[in-house]
Amino acid sequence: MTPDQQAAYWKQNLAYIAVLLSIWAAVSYGAAILLADALDRYRLFGFPLGFWFATQGSILTFVALVFVYVKLMNDLDRKYGVYER
User: Fold this and answer.
1) For residue 30, what are the domain limits?
2) Is residue 70 a part of any domain in this protein?
3) pLDDT tens-digit profile, the chain (85 residues)
4) Which of 30, 47, 52, 67 is the most buried (most CB within 10 A)?
């Protein structure tokens, strides 16, 4: 890989990380803390939705984002020819 390709690869990787961590922060902080009172009007599996996001939602979101990151990085690796089997 050329230095320009390395820079582009790393830039795209950092962009993926920034977007995915922003989503996780929005769910964890926004839904579980800032919007908890408003979300508590609704129920999910018998629990107030704000409470559910604080206890389970942010964790499940994080796990889902890990799988999204793996997919994105595998695609990026293939694009730059550094994919390992």
Assistant:
1) 3-80
2) yes
3) 899 999 999 999 999 999 999 999 888 888 778 888 888 899 888 888 888 878 888 889 999 999 999 999 999 999 998 988 7
4) 52
